[in-house]
Specification:
heterotrimer, A mainly alpha (285), B alpha/beta (234), C mainly alpha (334), A: 285 residues, mainly alpha, ABC transporter involved in vitamin B12 uptake, BtuC, 11 helices, 3% strand, globular, C: 334 residues, two-stranded antiparallel sheet, 2 strands, 78% helix
């Protein structure tokens, strides 16, 4: 049974890893703590629900539209909320983004209502010996790893990818490389949002969406990112698997609430012992 | 090639540069010397567009550069080796070079340029995959200069290239600069180490408190009494 | 001469308002109005207490946790062990002080500041909320927890049980709490600690070099802020006779406290109170005229307002007004 939990935990961690990449990119480049990231996930799910269940649009097309919508929402917030506050004290950015989070949640509440909305896509569960692996989670895991790989290649092999790395390491000198900072910000925000949208697509057969759906994912994503060291992509990647596994083990043994509790306790423990995260360097706030 | 006319510039209301006029002819090496705080680095930054020009004009090959954005200025053909090198510490040597060829004018030719750089600095080729942060001081400066070369500039600005380097390494460094000079690049170099810098110079300017106090051809400059006075009288 | 008269005018106006507020319940207002006033008084206290931290750059998102810890402990001790809430409250507050003290000290001692502090407090509040949910046999979990009603009692007994049939009792308790909170705000503002804490607010890393005193200041501030929040929470729970981990304890609850504070302006004495007043008034207006389903819109409304404020008027509504008015005054004198 533990083995089952660990395996499912690794699958879960892989999915979370994609979210962690999105957050880390945005933090590294734009230097913002993206407080409504989980809500982007929620919007993605709602859009897919609306399109598939409400308008009978084919699933894959709906997913594409959802990703595009989520990117649009994030870019809009970037232009209207984040950009004006880039030079303001960090607390202002943080609170403004918290406000956006509240707005998005309540927008979904008034538009869709408080009940859970699910899309009836049921996938089988694989049984190997005593191990149960839901195919939906397996697909999500493989898909997440695929996109994580794409991001890796993008960052390492393309000019824009290199530019993103450069800006996150030394933005002043990056401009001496003829890199247009504004453009890189926009691309990064789009990328981060796209990852949330893609994760939403994978979540469809796993979760039902409701206005409070985003909150726990925002928190767990932050836990992962801080644990791995903010802005540290490999760190976040590793931390995702750790948190995913821990959460799954306690979820299976006790209940889903205990899964979250264990992850939060682990976080609190590590942040005290090693504030820079597992692999992180001391960040200058 | 580069013409600076009556430029006043600074970072806020306080203007650091006061009525600066100078020029860099094609293919020549121009040195800016002077004490700390004279505004030498600020002049470089103004040319690159990171410091604000409040009055005056800067021309490059006839084009007006005033307050253009930095990426544009690089695309026009001016690149800078910043103070301290400022490499991307977590990227490899290879990636640092590659990002140097980010400007559109340089992208197509990056392989060619990289071969040139490796010819000039074979050590970099052997250390391609190494993380920039793990290089020695001299190697870092080498990489910094090479990165700038990757952008295929016509004019290269160097901001205190010798800073923080051991004396032994200094000799090698100035050897590199000389090599680049012979390759035909125009150089505008800010240096504290006046003696060594003047060996390479075609022309030199002395700056002090935001103004150009004195300028002359290399040979006369060295012997000038004013120089000695300026330096001793600080 | 003019200046003196202005100050006198201002002071007598304030006194008049204070007298009105004190006499308010005796003017037999509608129960609804009293209800709103009590809510405003309680949440103003909590928001102002939050601003003790917020104004110095320490964004705490775990004030909901303090509400939860204090209120639940008091309620549970009463329901299960018949421990009178007046005493139970002390135990609840003790728990809050311990939690705030320990977590505050841990954070400040190990340099967990800025974003990291905010996220850590977020995790703490969610943790407390989850623990309450998980202990559903005792706390009722997500469904919430009701406090046993005592029934009509003589006044002195009402105080002990913190249950008043007539809302007036709650009104005055809440008023006292708010006045106390404002008084403490004043004390902090004028005290020696102000200089140190402003330094912290401006540059946490630089001031961390000053030494252990900073850690002590911050922790003390955190504990005081938490304790007042705890009292407010207990009062709120006793007033509504109902507790719920989602609406009172988690991230959402904590954020709503933050928003009330910054809407009015967290750097001023009256800012959080004004912010609370505006938000509660707006919510009630929407509830009354449009129905409870439309509360979401009012929240969206003040969310947008907050964003606009943060970008253009970071001092908050009251704070900006004050600045504008004081600039005008300066012109008049000359």
């Amino acid at each position: 049974m533990i083995l089952n939990a660990i395996l499912n935990g690794i699958l879960y961690g892989g999915i979370l890893a994609l979210l962690a990449i999105g957050l880390n990119l945005m933090f590294g480049v734009v230097q913002i703590v993206h407080f409504f990231y989980g809500q982007l996930l929620m919007i993605g799910l709602y859009i897919i629900y609306l399109l598939v269940v409400g308008m009978h649009i084919p699933f894959f097309l709906a997913c594409l539209i959802a990703v595009a919508t989520v990117v649009a929402v994030n870019l809009l917030s970037h232009l209207m909320v984040v950009n004006p506050l880039l030079k303001a004290p960090l607390i202002n950015q943080f609170l403004a983004m918290a406000a956006v989070m509240v707005i998005l949640e309540n927008l979904c509440l008034v538009i869709f209502g408080a009940t859970y909305k699910g899309i009836p896509i049921i996938l089988p569960i694989l049984k190997i010996a005593t191990i149960y692996i839901p195919i939906s989670r397996l697909i999500a895991f493989v898909g997440s790893m695929f996109f994580a790989g794409l991001i890796y290649l993008f960052l390492k092999k393309t000019y824009i990818g290199l530019a993103i790395q450069a800006v996150s390491q030394d933005r002043e000198i990056a401009s001496f490389m003829a890199i247009n900072q504004r453009l890189i910000y926009i691309i990064t925000m789009a990328l981060g949002a796209a990852l949330a949208g893609i994760t939403a697509a994978f979540f469809v057969p796993i979760y039902s969406v409701h206005p409070d759906f985003g909150g726990p994912f925002t928190v767990i994503s932050f836990v992962i990112v801080v644990l791995g060291g903010m802005g540290n992509l490999p760190g976040g990647f590793l931390a995702a698997f750790i948190i995913g596994t821990v959460t799954m083990i306690f979820s299976t043994l006790l209940s889903s609430e205990f899964g979250a509790i264990s992850a939060y306790l682990l976080f609190l423990l590590i942040i005290i012992v090693r504030p820079q995260g597992l692999l992180g360097i001391r960040a200058r706030t | 090639m580069l013409k600076v006319e009556n430029v006043y510039a600074g970072y806020s209301e306080y203007k650091i540069l006061q009525d600066i006029s100078m020029e860099v002819p094609i293919g020549k090496t121009i040195i800016l010397v002077g004490p700390n705080g004279a505004g030498k680095s600020t002049l470089l930054k103004t040319i690159m567009g990171t410091a604000k020009l409040t009055s005056g004009r800067i021309y490059f090959n006839g084009k007006l550069l005033n307050n253009k954005k930095t990426p544009e200025i690089i695309e026009i053909g001016i690149s800078i080796v910043p103070e301290g090198g400022r490499l991307f510490q977590e990227l490899t040597v290879f990636d640092n070079l590659r990002i140097g060829s980010y400007p559109k004018r340089a992208r197509k030719h990056y392989r060619e340029q990289m071969d040139k750089v490796f010819q000039l600095f074979p050590i970099l080729q052997s250390r391609q995959k190494q993380i920039a942060g793990s290089l020695s001081g001299g190697e870092r400066q080498m990489l910094a200069i090479s990165r700038t070369l990757m952008s295929r500039p016509e004019l290269i600005l160097l901001d205190e290239p010798s800073q923080g380097l051991a004396p032994k390494v200094l000799v090698t460094l100035f050897g590199f600069v000389k090599e680049i000079k012979t390759q035909g690049y125009s150089l505008l170099m800010v240096e504290q180490n006046m003696r060594k810098a003047l060996e390479l110079a075609d022309y030199a300017y002395l700056m002090e408190s935001g103004c150009i106090k004195f300028h002359d051809e290399k040979t006369d400059f060295l012997n000038s009494y004013s120089i000695k006075k300026a330096y001793l009288g600080i | 001469m003019n200046l003196q008269r202005n100050v006198l005018l201002k002071k007598s106006l304030l006194l008049l308002i204070l007298i009105l507020i004190i006499l308010f319940p005796l003017l037999s207002p509608s129960p609804y109005l009293t209800h709103i006033s009590i809510l405003i008084l309680i949440w103003s206290s909590i928001s102002t207490a939050w601003s003790y931290m917020g104004r110095f750059g320490m964004v705490s998102l775990c004030h909901g946790a303090f509400i939860g810890i204090a209120a639940y402990i008091t309620a549970i001790l009463f329901n299960y062990y018949s421990l009178i809430p007046l005493v139970g409250m002390l135990i609840g507050l003790l728990a809050v002080i311990v939690v705030a003290g320990v977590s505050g000290y841990a954070c400040f001692r190990f340099g967990i500041i800025g974003h990291y502090f905010a996220i850590t407090t977020l995790v703490i509040t969610e943790l407390v909320s989850l623990v309450i949910i998980v202990c559903r046999d005792i706390t009722g979990g997500r469904l919430g927890y009701t406090i046993n009603s005592i029934g009509p009692l003589p006044l002195y007994k009402e105080i002990i049980y913190l249950q008043f049939v007539d809302k007036t009792g709650f009104y005055y308790l809440a008023l006292v709490l708010l006045l106390l909170t404002l008084y403490i705000w004043r004390k902090i503002d004028k005290g020696k600690t102000m200089v140190g804490l402003t330094a912290i607010g401006d540059d946490e890393e630089a001031s961390s070099c000053i030494g252990l005193n900073i850690v002590r200041y911050k922790t003390a501030m955190f504990v005081i802020s938490a304790a007042i929040t705890g009292v407010g929470g207990i009062l709120y729970a006793q007033y509504t006779m109902y507790l719920n981990p989602i609406t009172m304890v988690g991230a959402g609850a904590s954020l709503s406290i933050v928003f009330k504070s910054i809407l009015g302006g967290m750097f001023t004495l009256w800012g959080p109170t004004i912010g609370t007043l505006i938000i509660i008034a707006m919510e009630e207006y929407v509830r009354v005229f449009f129905g409870a389903e439309y509360i979401g819109w009012s929240i969206i409304g003040y969310g947008i307002t907050i964003i606009i404020l943060i970008i253009f008027f970071p001092q908050g509504i009251y704070g900006t007004l004050r600045e504008v008015l004081s600039k005008r005054q300066k012109h008049r004198i000359y």
